[in-house]
Amino acid sequence: MTDRTTFVTLAGLRERGWTDPMVRDLLGQPDVQGRDPRRWSIAPVRLYRLARVEAVERTPEFARCAAASGRRSATVEAGAERRRRAVLAAIRAEPIEVPRLPAAELERRAVRHRHLLGARGPGAAAAGALVRWQVTYLRYALSRYETLLDGLFGSTGRAEAEQLLRTRLYEAIGAAYPHLARECRRRGEAER
Questions:
Q1: Which of 46, 98, 185, 186 could form a disulfide with 176 if both were Cys (CB 3.0 to 4.6 A apart)?
Q2: At a CB cut-off of 8 Å and minimum separation 6, what does 140 contact?
């Protein structure tokens, strides 16, 4: 049995500022490798002797690798920020074209869309339900604008871009169909 206070896991190394290539190049093979008896996992546990890790951290080679890793990280972050700004600008600049339909046709399509989604319920619409269905249908009809979000992943501003796009879509629907504006505002506020 090993004393865990004298060893560092790969996750522990990452917390100390190590990257996977640094571990591979500077530390090499782990000192202890095996399965963690406390949890089921296919991946083996890799432990590195703390004294060896600290000795490598004092070397000039480690300092060079850490500095290079920091520069790479800053470059990656700058690229992600550029992509985020470009996507937000594209969303702001993209004209939103809402299909203009006669009231009866919009109602028919909204009801049909609701039934295609598998919704069941009373034949007669409850108060306000038809307005909600119409906004849902129009939002679906504008789903092609979701492609503006391509290229954004995780923390590169995707949530901000999605919120901006939703806001713009609801504003466009409300402008095209003034009787739906109140429902569009309600949804926009609820989805924040």
A1: 98
A2: 113
Nearest to 92 by CA among 172, 8, 184: 172
Residue whose entry in the numeric block shows the structure tokens 């990280």:
73
Q: What is the DSSP letter of 26?
A: I
Token pair for residue 23?
């571990």
Query: Containing H/E element for 110?
Result: helix 103-116
Q: How far apart are CA 18 and CA 179, in angstroms?
A: 58
Contact 100, 60 (CB under 8 A): no
CB 133 within 8 A of CB 109: no
- Reported pTM: 0.57
* pLDDT tens digits, 146-171: 887 776 665 567 788 889 999 999 99
Residues 26 and 62 sit within 8 Å (Cβ to Cβ): yes
User: Which of 60, 39, 50 lies closest to 15 in space, CA to CA?
Assistant: 50
